[in-house]
Amino acid sequence: MNFRNVALVGALCASVQVVLSAQTLTVSNTIASGASIAQYISGSSGLDGPKMSPEINATSFDWWYFDAVAEDASMGLVVVFYLSTDLGFPFVPPLSALSVDIFATFEDGTLVFLPENDLPLQAGAATITTDGDGASGVWKGTGFEFSGTPDLSSYKVTIDNPLLGITGTLELKSVAPAHYACGLNLPGQNLEVSPHIGWANAIPDADAVANFTILGRPLQFKGPGYHDKNWGDAPFTSQVASWYWGHGRLGPYSIVWFDVLGKDGQEYVSSYAAKDGQIITASCSGIKVRPTGQNSQYPPVITSGNPQGFHIDLDLGSEGMLEVDIETNIALADAILYTRWSGNMSGGVQGGPTYTGVALYEEFKFEL
Ligand SMILES: *[C@@H]1O[C@H](CO)[C@@H](O)[C@H](O)[C@H]1NC(C)=O
Ligand SMILES: *[C@@H]1O[C@H](CO)[C@@H](O)[C@H](O)[C@H]1NC(C)=O
Ligand SMILES: *[C@@H]1O[C@H](CO)[C@@H](O)[C@H](O)[C@H]1NC(C)=O
């Protein structure tokens, strides 16, 4: 082999390496014994990749979440891919480490949650391929899969499960850059939004198109969409007393909020705002979220009824304080300990224009 060939082989290896940089993890529907270690500091890529190693033990969890809400807040869709037992996260089927679910809300307010509790949809195995910052996942045997680009610019969720009566796609085209709990998508960032809860927000806001047939009914709409993932190395309910999370689009702003009350009695927050697609703030401070109207007790307990809405103060730094009021339009899921809504937002920066938009948001409450 002459030097020219050595150089050529080197060049080929380099290009092969780029192609091989995608990594595929196969997870079987079994529970690891011993420690499952969480990644709580970001690396140089893999924002949306698996975060528990090994995936998963009986008390850890790692999930991928997708949603979209119609422009008039009347319809909604949520699809979640779980690696978790019901000890890790209580809302997944028992005796399974791999499952999926879908929440669909139709224009007339009908809410469909599938699979039914007595017919849990478990996967035999899952593969998750990480490429750049993006991930793609197949939960085998469920007909549920998602596919993301390495630069997080677009994602597609595909469901094809004739037995369950669901076919269709959710397409997300990102309009706001990814971020972590405390900052930008950079190496070395803190990934814990609250103790033992990891969070990576691949798509804070997207132009979404939902096109499904569910139990024979079409569910088709356009509106803001979203994708993130959470993970943790301790049971969710051992760490969280209550939490408010949500996202929405308000005029030129894409916003995401987290306001968590930990079991330690401390409040943990994360605030994100992008304006016309540029990040203005991504921080684990500078935001306060509180329930409003009826049942606006804070902190909420299990017996608190559903509030009518929320008020958010989101600090935009030199641009001022973004003050947002959310009025609930419809419940997309209501399981007492957990509620998810779509609603109308209005607000703006003091002295500036008032904008309106739609939001999708949730509450957990686990305290007596
Ligand atoms: C799972 O792993 C974590 C460490 O990340 C450990 O604290 C926990 O006890 C493990 N759970 C079980 C059931 O072994
Ligand atoms: C929705 O899906 C159906 C069935 O695949 C397809 O015929 C139709 O063109 C799609 N509509 C849109 C708006 O993409
Ligand atoms: C939210 O906005 C939509 C569309 O403008 C409207 O139909 C609906 O009544 C509003 N809901 C509330 C609770 O204000």
UniProtKB/TrEMBL annotation:
Keywords: Signal
Keyword Signal part of the UniProt annotation: yes
Signal peptide coordinates: 1-21
InterPro entries attached to this UniProt entry: AsqO/PenF-like_C (IPR057722), DA_N (IPR056402)
Ranges for domain Diels-Alderase N-terminal: 21-231
Domain of life: Eukaryota
Domain AsqO/PenF-like C-terminal: 238-365
Name the UniProt record assigns to this protein: AttH domain-containing protein
Organism field: Oidiodendron maius (strain Zn)
